[in-house]
Specification:
- By secondary structure, the chain is α/β, with parallel strands linked by helices.
- It has 4 domains: 226 residues, Acetylglutamate kinase-like (Carbamate kinase, 3-Layer(aba) Sandwich), CATH 3.40.1160.10; 153 residues, VC0802-like (2-Layer Sandwich), CATH 3.30.2130.10; 110 residues, NAD(P)-binding Rossmann-like Domain (Rossmann fold, 3-Layer(aba) Sandwich), CATH 3.40.50.720; 182 residues, 2-Layer Sandwich (Dihydrodipicolinate Reductase, domain 2).
- Strands 3-5-2-1-8-10-11-9 form an 8-stranded mixed sheet, sandwiched between helices.
- Helix 16 links the parallel strand 18 and strand 19.
- Helix 1 packs across helix 3.
- It is elongated, with a radius of gyration of 36 Å.
- The chain binds adenosine-5'-diphosphate, aspartic acid and magnesium ion.
- Aspartic acid (ASP) binds next to helix 8.
- Bifunctional aspartate kinase and homoserine dehydrogenase that catalyzes the first and the third steps toward the synthesis of lysine, methionine and threonine from aspartate.
- One of its GO terms (biological process) is homoserine biosynthetic process.
- InterPro entries: AceGlu_kinase-like_sf (IPR036393), ACT-like_dom_sf (IPR045865), ACT_Aspartokinase (IPR054352), ACT_dom (IPR002912), AK-HD (IPR049638), Asp/Glu/Uridylate_kinase (IPR001048), Asp/hSer_DH_NAD-bd (IPR005106), Asp_kinase (IPR001341).
- Pfam families: AA_kinase, ACT_9, Homoserine_dh, NAD_binding_3.
Length: 815
């Protein structure tokens, strides 16, 4: 004998029922079968809603009944040969009429007792099972139908009745001993009490029906056919990377299902465990997939963690006060009270000081529990020995489950640090004495992030997903997107970094794709995107609440630079090539650095100085290892170096500046480079990163530009002024040539003072031969006393800047 159970989606409509029938027909060739079926997908919910409406005196319940009727009649027409249809149609109509009569009664009385509710919500299985039995007759002529209310007996605890196994086992035995159909279809979920009332086994209870029958008949296996390829390492709807577990022990499966793995109704395991009957979970829509085998002898796997599950809608109730200490029986009273109120306790922790007891229950029980507990401890509360209990709603329990977790140290540490790094606040912790389970209570809004990071940590070979939110896709931004596109596969395969771009924005448009956008047509997606808005952008990034989120600023915009704090505070990393924030008031710079530390969110801006050159990173390592910077000398403007390297007798200053712009070496407004403001910002950032406090105003900046050029108000005016003052620039050049020197724009820091300006550099100086748009920095430190540490290379250009931003992103991936 083999017992097969098909869930709601497996029998959702005629098309799916045909798939189900084929599986049954194939299996029937091997063994006698009992087939347990659920209601058509969604029908139990429709019945619940109809009964609620009827008892609320809302006549709309009639529409729901009509919808239910339509679904079933449609299925009959599709599944059953025309000649045999009328009997089934009238049978179903009779059932529907009966349902309607009951609902009319609820409507007239404005009332719905638990007992009536159980009768009403059982109609889904009554309807589905008779249609499926009739459908099967085409392939298996002796297919029979049996009403499980005549086989499974329970008490009168409506909604989730307790099974009387002795009585049920006898009835099941008697029936199957005296009937020998090759296939018998029975409705899941429904049963009846010993005194004849209809009962149900709890939501999802068809699995349980199948287990009860399998255990009673000592079947060789129990097969649960559903819509996924088995029991997964985490809920596959929330964790895309989750995968089916090949084999798992009864205890592990029980733990996972108790903690929310809906694929198996928790009570299902007990009856089959006692008889050592394995459970096989299979997918109706992919029958060739292996599925999950639950048995007493699950294979030992290398990974001590078997799965991660979670329960939503949790409320934490905390009872606290000195009155709890030493008063024997406090917990007995607490749990007694909850039990009297029929409140299911899902989670318990008690501080070892015994000062507080903390329990997790369902949100829907919260009010009832608070009233009952405060009443039970009324006397202690009035004497201020115990505080009125506190109630925190909308939480969620996340549990790591695995039999051999007890043999491994440090798993809980790993769990907590993974959550901590992603700023998931842990409200309470419990570890079962069996150590088969470590569970934490967190905020519901963090659940997706928590499940995904934990899954990544425990099941994905340390692959790290980075979620990028990119603002600014101009010259540099475009190169950045191209580089990600090129490197994505390599990074995933070789560095275990899964880079995803979730959002992009320019000043006009923005586009979000929660699953990571296809990188080859990001431009098109952006063009078709919604109107850009910085604040909406931030709200969306926050609401998505994805793990390892990184905001990437590739603008030169001051407003954007003012939003970093809002990201960092949410534990979202900031990577930026925009210098404005780090060169703003020292207070703001240090505030951002503090936020980064406090919220464990990297704030990286390597490209603020020297484009892609590893200057800031090197400096950071030097300082962290105890070195101290005394003096910095640098050429930090790729654009000014390009301009003065190309400015010769045979061209004019204006044209060279224009060309630098065309090649992307200057800021959009070239005056920012030529006035020295940009270089001043850069040296300021190096000074601050060296550990000194300084403001931009403290930096001497004697401009080589005539005042009139400096005072211009627009980019075109600035260029015009360069033409006007051509002789001034020619004179600068001639003077340099006369002195056998070259013009270099130099930034300096020494003895606490900083300056930027154009200088004549003699041939012996390391700056003399600085080519093209290169940058050079000399650091004189405790360790580099006579010979400075020198970093030199291309210091401007879209591609190197983009690669510098990329490097910062990868740094975060490597943390
Ligand atoms: P059925 O109607 O077949 O009984 P259910 O909806 O009750 O199916 O259970 C299957 C669903 O359980 C899956 O579609 C999936 O969304 C959900 N689920 C939650 N956690 C898990 C898990 N760990 N493994 C597999 N499925 C899970
Ligand atoms: N139809 C019932 C429910 O939706 C039982 C089941 O599907 O297992 O809860
Ligand atoms: Mg189910």
């Amino acid at each position: 004998m083999n017992v097969l159970k098909f869930g709601g989606t497996s029998v959702a409509n005629a098309e799916n029922i045909k798939l189900t029938a084929n599986i049954i027909a194939k299996k029937a060739k091997e063994d006698r079968l009992v087939v347990v079926v659920s209601a058509l997908s969604g029908v139990t919910d429709l019945l619940l809603s109809a009964s609620k409406k009827a008892s609320d005196k809302d006549a709309a319940y009639k529409e729901i009944v009509a919808e239910i009727e339509k679904k079933h009649l449609f299925a009959i027409k599709e599944l059953i040969p025309v000649n045999d249809q009328s009997a089934m149609l009238s049978h179903v109509k009779r059932i529907i009429n009966h349902l309607e009569t009951l609902l009319d009664g609820c409507f007239l009385l404005g009332e719905l007792s638990d007992r009536t509710s159980d009768t009403i919500i059982g109609f889904g299985e009554l309807l589905s099972s008779c249609i499926i039995a009739e459908t099967l007759k085409q392939q298996i002529p002796d297919a029979a139908y049996k009403d499980s209310r005549e086989l499974i007996k329970t008490n009168n605890q409506f909604g989730k009745a307790i099974v009387n196994f002795a009585e049920s086992n006898l009835l099941i035995h008697n029936y199957f001993d005296t009937h020998d159909s090759s296939v018998t279809v029975i409705p899941g979920f429904i049963a009846s009490s010993s005194d004849g009332h209809n009962t149900t086994l709890g939501r999802g209870g068809s699995d349980y029906t199948a287990a009860i029958v399998a255990a009673a008949l000592h079947s060789k296996q129990l097969e649960i056919w559903t819509d996924v390829n088995g029991m997964y390492t985490a809920n596959p709807r929330i964790v895309k990377q989750a995968h089916p577990i090949e084999t798992i022990s009864y205890q592990e499966a029980m733990e996972l299902s108790h903690f929310g793995a809906k694929v198996l109704y928790p009570p299902t395991i007990q009856p089959v465990l006692n008889k050592n009957i394995p459970i096989l979970i299979k997918n109706t829509f992919e029958p060739e997939a292996e599925g999950t085998l639950i048995s007493a002898t699950a294979k030992e796997s290398e990974n001590p963690v078997k799965g991660i599950s979670h329960i939503d809608n949790i409320t934490l109730i905390t009872l606290e006060g000195s009155g709890i200490i030493g008063v024997s029986g406090s917990s007995k009273r607490l749990f007694g009270t909850l039990s009297n109120e029929n409140i299911n306790v899902i989670f318990i922790t008690q501080a070892s000081s015994e000062h507080t007891i903390c329990i997790g229950i369902q949100n829907s029980d919260a009010e009832k529990a608070k009233i009952a507990i405060d009443k039970a401890f009324e006397v202690e509360i009035s004497q201020s020995k115990i505080n009125p209990c506190t109630v925190e709603k909308n939480l969620c329990i996340v549990a790591l489950v695995g039999e051999s977790m007890k043999n491994h140290q440090g798993l809980s540490g790993k769990m907590f640090s993974t959550l901590g790094k992603n700023n998931v606040n842990i409200r309470a912790i419990a570890q079962g004495a069996s150590e088969r389970n470590i569970s934490v209570v967190i905020n519901e809004r963090d659940v997706k992030k928590a499940l995904n990071t934990l899954h990544e940590r425990f099941f994905e070979d340390n692959t790290k997903q980075l979620n990028l939110f990119v603002m600014g896709v101009g010259n540099v931004g475009e190169k950045f997107m191209d580089q990600i596109h090129q490197q994505k596969k390599f990074l995933k395969e070789n560095r275990k970094i899964n880079l995803r771009v979730i959002a992009i924005s320019n000043s006009r448009k923005m586009h979000f794709d929660e699953d990571g956008m296809p990188l080859k047509d990001w431009k098109e997606s952006l063009e078709n995107g919604e109107t850009a808005d910085k604040q909406t952008f931030i709200s969306r990034v926050k609401a998505l609440n994805l793990r390892n989120s990184i905001f990437v600023d590739i603008t030169a915009n001051e407003e954007v630079s003012k939003t970093y704090d809002q990201y960092l505070e949410e534990n979202i990393a900031v990577v930026t090539c925009n210098k404005i924030a780090c060169a703003s008031a020292y207070e703001n710079y240090s505030h951002l650095k503090n936020l980064s530390r406090k919220f464990n969110a990297p704030f990286l801006f390597e490209t603020n100085v020297g484009a892609g050159l590893p200057i800031i990173d090197t400096l950071k390592h030097m300082i962290a290892s105890g070195d101290k910077v005394h003096k910095i000398q640098a050429v930090l403007s790729g654009s000014l170096n390009f301009i003065f390297n190309n400015f010769k007798e045979n061209n004019n200053f204006h044209d060279v500046v224009k060309e630098a712009g065309v090649q992307g070496f200057t800021e959009p407004d070239p005056k920012i480079d030529l006035s020295g403001v940009d270089v001043a910002r850069k040296i300021l950032i190096l000074i601050r990163e060296s550990g000194y406090e300084m403001e931009i105003e403290d930096i001497d900046n004697e401009s080589f530009l005539p005042k009139e050029c400096l005072d211009t108000q627009s980019v075109p005016d600035f260029f015009t002024s360069l033409i006007k003052h051509e002789s001034h620039f020619n004179a600068l050049y001639k003077n340099a040539v006369a002195k056998n020197s070259r013009l270099k724009y130099v930034a300096k820091f020494e003895n606490g003072k900083a300056s930027v300006g154009l200088q004549l550099i003699e041939p012996s100086h390391p700056f003399y031969n600085l080519e093209g748009k290169d940058n050079i920095v000399l650091f004189y430190t405790d360790r580099y006393v006579d010979q400075p540490l020198l970093i030199k290379g291309a210091g401007a250009g879209a591609a190197v800047t983009a690669s510098g931003i990329f490097a910062d992103v990868i740094r975060i991936g490597n943390v």
